[in-house]
User: What shape does this take?
Amino acid sequence: MSEFFAMGGYAGYVWSSYGIAAIVLFLNAFSSLRRHQSILHRLKRLESK
Amino acid sequence: MQYSQAFKAMLVRDLRIAFRQRAEIMLPVVFFVVVVSLFPLAISPDPKILQNIGPGVIWVSALLSVLMSLQGLFRADFHDGSMEQILLSPYPGPLLVLARIVAQWCVTGLPLIIISPLLGLLFHLETSAIKVLFISLLLGVPYLNMVGAIGVALTIGLRQAGALLSLLVLPLYVPVLIFGSNAVVSASNGLPSDGQLLWLAAMLILASTLSPFVINSALRVSCSFR
Amino acid sequence: MKRSVKGGLWLWFHKMASPAYFYDVAGRLIPWCVIITAILLLVGLIGGLVFAPADYQQGDGFRIIYVHVPSAWMSMFIYIVIAINSAIFLIWHIKLADIVARSSAVLGASFAFLALVTGSIWGKPMWGTWWIWDARLTSELLLLFLYLGYIGLRSAIDDRRVAGKAGAILALVGVANIPIIHYSVVWWNTLHQPASVSKFDDPSIHLSMLIPLLSMALAFKLFYLCIVLINSRSELLEQEKRNQWVKKLVAEL
Assistant: This one.
């Protein structure tokens, strides 16, 4: 198991790459969903006025 | 009025307006010379090094000077409303746009090209290299003007037009920069530079035929809701 | 028979361009896309990190390929999608095309950024430097600039319609230049080839290494589809907020 994480000595490089990729993709997904929600909320508030 | 007369009228108009503000004509050239002069100061006055970096430095500085001079294009007309009048005229938009670009090049591009041999001397370039420098700029600077005008047309009236213009236009400048600068480097090393110059000529032809139409469309889009 | 099929296709096409219909269909499509994305990601990650054998030259370090190459492919794919939609928007004035283009831009730029960062990280153990001006990384950098210019222009223009058209023109000018830029960068690079250049992709890549790569590439594609659908729905709500169908939708929340 620890061999898997060590990645033959390239652990820092491999895992930081995958980590940054995960962060970038997650941020995109998160901001998209949040934008959708906030627009819906804002329109609802405008409607109920 | 015939089309050729309309073209000439537009060209003369722009030139006349430009020459009224003579100080502004000198600005791009002065900028060009100043920027080029900074490099020996920053790097080294050693002739060997200067010969190495000369072509690239001169080309990049020319590019930046053109970029700087683009700011004034179309702007005054846009802000005082005459842009809309020009767009509404019965003459084909691309034709008038071409006239304006030619005027712009005469005022801001041509001086750079003319003074380039002098700058070549400052960098100890050989005569053959200076010749190629002149030709490469002669072919490349109009391209920079035209593609830059596309960027200007898209960003007219925006708040941070200057920075945005640079960002839009720089990736499009890269091919001409690569071939232009490399033509001079090849000439410095005694190698043939015909291929690079032909490439520049091809890009210029492409830009000349297509950019008036693109700029015209972009101007219409930018002016439509202001 | 032919006429009715063509008519049916046009009918579907026009229906899709109708905002309310698209909003509904997209909404139902998204959960499925998410599931398929997750499956493909799992297959790709496990295949790439666990099952693919270590490269004889680069050891386990080559596994970065499974995020680097799909990111690079996606950055180019998305730019082409933006360009095609820009053309459709300019020619046929279909608003949905503009919305799709706008919705794709940030993710496209993210993929270009990711390709650069992972390429740089990969370069450190392989070439010994954090950055190298090789043709592909330099082209990718310029592509990132093209993306940033597109995003910058669209956000700087307040009027939605003008922003759409101006962005479309810029995207088309950009896409026409991409082959020219790439060719000139490759040419420039061959002149200044550094002494030791390692190739990113082996011409003969083993199947066990290839399958996870394709799976990751497809996963990224479907991820892009999810994001585009979600963003398009947001843009549609914003654009159509005065229309009946939006008001009804919001009231039922």
In short: The CA atoms of residues 107 and 209 of chain B lie 21 Å apart. Chain B has a mean pLDDT of 90.
